[in-house]
Amino acid sequence: MSLQTRVTEEFERRYGSPPALVVRAPGRVNLIGEHTDYNDGFVLPMAIDRATWIALRPRADGRVVATSLDFEETRDFALDALQTGVAHWSEYLKGVAWALIQAGHALRGWEGTLAGDVPIGAGLSSSAALELATARAFAAISGLAWEPTVMARLSQRAENEWVGVNCGIMDQLISAAGKAGHALLMDCRSLETQAVPMPAGATVVVLDTATRRGLVDSAYNERRAQCEAAAKFFGMKALRDVSVEQFEAKSGQLDVITRRRARHVVTENARTLQAAAAMRQGDAVTLGQLMNASHVSLRDDFEVSSAELNLMVECALKQAGCLGARMTGAGFGGCAVALVREADAHAFSTQVAADYRAATGLKPDIYVCAAADGAGIVASSSLLSASLVIE
Ligand code: GLA
């Protein structure tokens, strides 16, 4: 059963009538451009065909009543009395409501059912998917214009200030603005995005190591601080402003750790632009090589990989048809991503799973992913437009 059917049928079972609206927002995998977003740099993620879905209808009393089918739990809160609570899926809903209200929007309440198939904590942005699905729902029932970039910013604010995770803009922006069949080259300073077609004949395969690391947040914040210190040393607003040449000319004066961190970001920005250019030419081979170089840089200079991620990448690179592989997302655990010739994708997935399992005893999850559209309304009834007119 598709998730759309699941949230819709469960809605009907609970409320006795069809939902006014079904929305979805995807997770993402980043092809290249890692730990560059908070340096005002470039990233090249694609939205994946795994998403969070919400079936809903408006409520007249300014409350949100949401049932997560995955957690088998219902949460209920009033939009005029939002309060932070302990870590919980509903905090993302409240955080997005809070950010929209802070931005001056008048929100209507709603009730509905939620479900998703973006694995949680795997580095595929299940939280951005939940945030953007929530934003899409509020926007539709409150009559707000849907501006993907604005909604991504507000969702990032929810994550930073309500949930308390100091992430950059990449995950929310790709979940809001993704385009089927394409990755998006994002300038994380201007927030301009350019759709770049996936090279023909190549497939993106996500390789989940089945490891999760607890220290991601503190290591992430430490990397951010190191990058800021490096930008300051170069006299720039952000490492985005430092070219490879400028880096080489001056970096000898930096301490060894800061130099490595900065080298990753400066070279990764250059690789990301080269990767987008290669994709535009349909050059999957060059894209794959750039992904390999990105992994080495994340492993050795930025030091955010892990033994399992490195092993997964090695298993991938040994297979026929593998054009490139790297860790993806924040790192320390979670997923790697590989670019694989389409004809080899099936054999590749089976063999990498077997090799990784034999080496670690862990059972990895392997998904062949298609590039999907960003957050959207997938079904709405005439009831919704009628109810919006009445108010
Ligand atoms: C996490 C963050 C993103 C980005 C990546 C690393 O996914 O949420 O903003 O910084 O790590 O590229």
Topology:
Layout: H1 3-15, E1 21-30, E2 42-43, E3 45-59, E4 63-68, E5 73-78, H2 90-102, E6 109-116, H3 126-142, H4 148-163, H5 170-177, E7 182-187, E8 193-197, E9 202-208, H6 216-233, H7 244-250, H8 256-280, H9 284-300, H10 307-317, E10 322-327, E11 335-341, H11 345-360, E12 365-369, E13 376-380, H12 382-390
Core attributes:
single chain, 391 residues, alpha+beta, 4-stranded antiparallel β-sheet, 12 helices, 13 strands, globular, binds alpha-D-galactopyranose
What features would you describe in this structure?
By secondary structure, the chain is an alpha+beta fold. It has 12 helices and 13 strands. It has helices at 3-15, 90-102, 126-142, 148-163, 170-177, 216-233, 244-250, 256-280, 284-300, 307-317, 345-360, 382-390, and strands at residues 21-30, 42-43, 45-59, 63-68, 73-78, 109-116, 182-187, 193-197, 202-208, 322-327, 335-341, 365-369, 376-380. It has a 6-stranded mixed β-sheet with strand order 5-4-6-3-1-13, with helices on both faces. A 4-stranded antiparallel β-sheet has the order 10-11-9-12. It has a 3-stranded antiparallel β-sheet with strand order 2-7-8, sandwiched between helices. A hairpin with a 4-residue loop joins β4 and β5. 51% of the residues are buried. The structure holds alpha-D-galactopyranose. Residues 34-35, 37-38, 167-168, 170-171, 329-330 line the site of alpha-D-galactopyranose.
